Amino acid sequence: MINQEGLKRNNIGFNATRNFTKSFNIAVNFSYTNEAVENRVYRNGSNRNPANSYLYILPTMGESTLLPYKDPFGVAYKFNADFINPYWNLYENSNADETNRVIGGLNLNWKLASDFNLSGKALLDYNDRFGDEFNNMGSVYDANGLYRTFDTTTLATNLEMILKYNKKVKDFSILANVGGNMYDYNQTGRESLLNGLLVPDLKSLSNSNTIPLVTERDGAKKVNSIFGSLTVGYKDIYFIDATARNDWSSTLPAANNSYFYPSIGGSILLNELFPKNDVLSFLKLRASYAQVGNDTSPYNLISTFRYGGLYNGQTYVSLDSTNKNPELKPELTTSNEYGIEANFFKKRFTVNATYYNSSTINQIIPVQTTPAYGFSRQIINAGEIKNDGVELFLKARILDSKLKWDMEFNWSNNHSEVVSLIDGVNRLQLRSWFNVNVWAEVGKSLGEIRGTTRAIDAETGLTLVGTNGEVLFNTDQYLGNAQANYQGGFRNAFTYKGVNLSFLLDFKQGGDLYSGTMAKAINNGLPIETLEGREDYLFSSVILGENTNELGGVGLYGNAYADTERPKGRIYENAAIGVRDASGKWVAQKDANGNIITSNRYINPQTYGYNSGNDQARLMYDTSFIKLREVIIGYTLPRKFVEKTVFQDMKFSVVGRNLYTFFQNTPQGIDPEASTTSGNGQGIEYASFLPTRTVSFNINLKF
User: Fold this and answer.
1) At what angle are helices 516-523 and 605-614 packed, to 10 degrees?
2) What pTM, to 2 d.p., does this model score?
3) pLDDT > 80? residue 306
């Protein structure tokens, strides 16, 4: 573990309510958080990521090999190959950031009449994050060093006013709302970057051997909305709900910045139609149809220029690497939902089940594109994506005496399908790493993972190799999909005389992951499986001096080599020579008599390892798991001890999270939930850190 990462967080909160009259009150809430972090760890394939260095550390490399990591002049010792000493990354690279966040709200509530109520709120969210990053000069990957400072401030405000009407007319109940909202978001960012240091160990913007690069990033967004809702009930059994909302967003082009979305739903309390009994406490059926609109982040409409560098002492600008879209349309998601909720035995047992299906059109996503296009990414409206799934929630109180035992279980699955993309395009690349690509493909689930697979003869199932004994590959082959078949959780909570204990198990079944970590590890000969054939190849090629023909069983003048039984390196077993057929597919080569020409050629185990790293299908792993996600042990002091203090309640607890993995299919040390991204394009992992567990001690005091 990296023992240099540190986090300190302090919170303070305040809530107050004042009733000025029986019909008018004001509530105020406020919270302030200060968070300071030292040495956030670099991620994925960064040269500065210590976990990336681990992929090159041989089992025989101890501290005596890695230390000292730099010479007397402060320059990192260089190893052969791509290995970077992790001690350099730990002790010569540093970063720190601090965040101050203020969240406040003012809520007004005014009862205008017996049936009318006016409410308003003003919400504020202020966030200021600043810090620095320092990479000392002398490293293998950055001899000149780097120093960066940054400061980003965001301010979001929400102003909302709602007029409510609540009336009971005989057997009917009416609840109507109409209101408006104004959302305003502003961000200001400043960054100063030195791509070269003048002297080592000095964190200062004046310590520069080049012209500092200063970047300003400002962003603004406004959304104005009007909305309304209506709920009509009959005899407190039958209910109909309807909503309507229209938004105007500044992040969309003027022709498309207004979007309207309604919903309608109904429910029935069936238990009210049945005689009262001790078995069925509550039974509700519900169904709804809804639309939800969505805009995008600021400045995705027009491609702009950015600082490009210096040429002959003159600055120049270049186009942004992302091609913006001046014709963006708002996303629109249409969904249908059907559900049932039931309570039994005086609410001792609860069942809540939901089926849903939804369709999203004009989804706004950034996708990768060929560099020949002039951009590495572009913003598009991507056709239509459909989702459907089931959610199930069960809750039961097993014991309800001095010892209370509550049990909860949730389960869900979701299936997505790409119905259409932009005209003339059947698939779009969402992410690429190690030539493994994640796609949105028409007619397939979102996030299809494609890459290279070993060429196999369809008739015999033999692995196909070239005349040099190296395996042949097929490109752009289906490898898997990151989506799970289903997932859920199982919680148990016990309470006895102020002591509470709860634990949560999480599980997931299905989903695929390509491990770049294993690809690099195999390339560098780290797993035990790469040991096979090393001594045999050394003895054959170095000590005996056998040539490539003899490794393949061919002796002088094309005769059979006498010593064919002895292993001479690494070999693809059950292999045949591969050739292209008339359609371009790899097939097994046959001799004049129609017999398949097999291959027994030995190759260098290092070559075998590199080829295995390209055999991407064998580096795909099922991401199913069962984890002990959380355990909480707490104690609440009895009232008789608390009432003698200024506090109303005192509770102490120990919380452990991500404590243990009972089951996983990924290699040891690779978390099934690891990924190079949390957005579109999941299903690729590279240089992820070992799974970590956290244990915290909490004190909760109420005044």
Assistant:
1) 170
2) 0.87
3) no
List pLDDT tens digits, range 25-69: 999 999 999 999 999 888 887 888 888 888 888 878 888 888 999
Q: How far is the C-alpha of 3 from the C-alpha of 141, rounded, in Å?
A: 23
pLDDT tens digits, residue range 508-564? 999 999 999 999 889 888 888 899 999 999 999 999 999 888 888 888 877 888 888
First to last CA, the chain: 39
Task: Answer left, alpha or beta for residue 676, where phi above 0 means left and psi between -120 and 50 means alpha.
Answer: alpha
Pick from 284, 286, 283, 291: which is nearest to 266 by CA? 286
Provide the pairing of β-strand 575-580 with 463-465.
Answer: parallel
Q: Are 408 and 373 in contact (CB under 8 A)?
A: no
Residues 6+ apart with CB under 8 A from 521: 55, 527
Using CB atoms within 10 A of its CB, is residue 594 exposed (0-12), middle (13-18) or buried (19+)? exposed
> Using omega within 30 degrees of 0 as the cis cutoff, is the peptide bond preceding 68 cis?
yes
Q: How far apart are CA 32 and CA 674, in angstroms?
A: 32
List the Cα angle 521/684/658 in 5-degree steps.
85
Q: Is the dihedral of CA 247, 250, 251, 257 positive or negative?
A: positive
Omega cis (within 30) before 59 = no
Report the distance separating Cα 263 and Cα 245, nearest Å: 9
Length of the chain: 703
Query: In 570-678, which residue ranges form alpha helices assigned H by DSSP?
Result: 605-614, 639-642
Task: Give yes or no for a contact between 308 and 318, defined as CB atoms under 8 angstroms apart.
Answer: yes
Residue 231 backbone dihedrals phi, psi, to 5 degrees: -125, 125
Mean pLDDT, the chain, rounded, equals 91
Q: Give the CA-trace dihedral at 415, 420, 422, 423, to 10 degrees.
A: 170
463-486 burial by CB neighbour count: b if 16+ within 10 A, else e? bbbeeebbbbbeeeeebbbbbbeb
What are the residues facing 699 on neighbouring strands?
Answer: 652
DSSP 8-state symbol, 683 = S
Measure the CA–CA gap between 608 and 691, rounded to whole angstroms.
30
